[in-house]
Amino acid sequence: MTFSARLSAAVREKKTPVLVGIDPRFNSIPECLRTGVCASDLKGVAGVFRTFSLRLLDVIAPHVACIKPQLAFFEAAGPYGMAALADVIDYARKLGLVVILDGKRNDIGSTAEGYAAAYLGENSAWKGDALTVSPYLGEDSVQPFVKVAEQNDAGIFILVKTSNPGGGMLQDLQAEGKTIYQHTADWVEKTAAAFAEAQGEKYGAVGAVVGATYPEQLAELRQRMPHAWLLVPGFGAQGGTVKDVAHAFDEDGLGAIINNSRGIIFAHARKDYAGKFTDAQWESAVETAVLEMKAQFEGFVR
Amino acid sequence: MTFSARLSAAVREKKTPVLVGIDPRFNSIPECLRTGVCASDLKGVAGVFRTFSLRLLDVIAPHVACIKPQLAFFEAAGPYGMAALADVIDYARKLGLVVILDGKRNDIGSTAEGYAAAYLGENSAWKGDALTVSPYLGEDSVQPFVKVAEQNDAGIFILVKTSNPGGGMLQDLQAEGKTIYQHTADWVEKTAAAFAEAQGEKYGAVGAVVGATYPEQLAELRQRMPHAWLLVPGFGAQGGTVKDVAHAFDEDGLGAIINNSRGIIFAHARKDYAGKFTDAQWESAVETAVLEMKAQFEGFVR
């Protein structure tokens, strides 16, 4: 089954666009899981990441369709961290979750093939359903990812309009009558539309990252890329609300997945949950947070 | 010692701007090192990468100042590959080589800290002297790398004008009177100049990647970023020549390092060396290639 069909089916089954970001920041992980482990002991840290992430998956898998492990944090724990990431991906896929690897990789064509093979290829140690990709090096740097995605029924999400305050430095510049992010979006749409047509589906395997923190641009980009799944970061801790992302969806409530990382995985430390959960009850906090976010999007997916 | 001072000293000591790219593509590695290992056996592949890279370092370390391991290829061999990368970095630094990790990483600020810690931080498993960074997410996504570099006497190289044919898709667009790559370059220069002033040096710890395949832009960018080291890919196999990169240097022959990957590390397979080296003589081929490239830049470093 194609990536787009798999994602659609998973979102429909779980009836929610909620995407949970797996960002294991060591100092934010519940203390009871970190006892006796120093931040400088990378093997110990990686073990904590593994335990935390696997237990997290058990809690969220019944409720959501997809997860987004953030490679940066696993990489910060060195080769042990990357081995833990492999276990997390394997377990998530066994649980039926769609796994979107957030690596924002990119390089010139012949090297991009290496990244594509590493995360989406048939011999991948970290085989994800999709990978995020940065567009600064242009079309020929993204094509190898598209090709490997096509060969492996995987997907890619290109950074278009990111959620951070400084994203506009390059993305918002006007060139030849449109912004840089619109240039990127038009390339995504062209590629996604070709995919969608070839596969006889509404959406292609090439999607776009568009931040919840820029609601107007999100609505505009939904229109501009009718064949692209939107991966929307910036909900929750970064300030994005349900209202901000409402225009990211199509009439069936599909076409967008809304990421929340800290607000769910570190829910035990949320200020609005103060006094509700002890450190040891972190899994209850996670489940509460994921169900609350699901409730906010109740009725979206039809 | 700061990154810039360390790089200057190393280039002066070896009297050459040659930078050797360590890109272990499995199928290009001499066959005698691959005997009995299948491409799908990632543990075996990582072992081949380790052996090949360590022997390579022994050959090149007496002749050059710096190396640039390409993370994509090590990542393609999974966690085993990333463990091999750690060994390669450790050994290179023991040999006194300046290690520039080519990862082209980037993310929003709080996540960029994870990448910076992973490759430049005090607990890094892959502690490099510098890391390449992509600018698409803007200033606040690059600052965490700058900060960690500053704290660890490390450096970063921002992608400005890349060597691939399609790099112009976004980089060459004109916005507010200058191209996107010039916008990026101006940010690099501003940051590099502040660094250089604070450290009392000619160059700062923030450099730029500028391809040898665009000689006019390379000359222009040398003028535009007087305080930035230039990392110049695209020499050799990609078509760049000594004449193309001649304007990348300052009057002392410093300020630029010229990368060659395939042309050196896979010299045994070079067409112009046909019949000269057997597969088993690959180390002689590497040494010949590195000395020939050095000879082309004879007299540059004063």
Task: List the keywords.
302 residues, globular, alpha/beta, homodimer, TIM Barrel, 13 helices, 15% strand, two-stranded antiparallel sheet, 8-stranded parallel beta barrel
CATH architectural category of chain A = Alpha-Beta Barrel
Most strands sheet of chain A: 8 strands, parallel, barrel
What's the order of the H and E elements of chain A?
HEHHEHHEHEHEHEEHEHEHEHH
Specify the helix fraction band of chain A: 40-55%
Helix/strand-derived category of chain A reads alpha/beta
What fraction strand of chain A? 5-15%
Cα distance spanning the termini of chain A: 21 Å
Q: What count of structural domains of chain A?
A: 1
Mean pLDDT of chain A: 97
Rg of chain A from C-alpha positions? 18 Å
Poorly predicted regions of chain A: none
Overall number of strands of chain A: 10
* Shape summary of chain A: globular
Strand order of the largest sheet of chain A: 1-2-3-4-5-8-9-10
- CATH topology name of chain A, in short, is TIM Barrel
CATH class of chain A: Alpha Beta
Q: Which chains have the largest interface?
A: A-B, 66 and 67 residues
Instruction: Give the oligomeric state of the chains in this entry, treating copies of one chain as homo and distinct chains as hetero.
Output: homodimer
Q: Give the number of helices of chain A.
A: 13
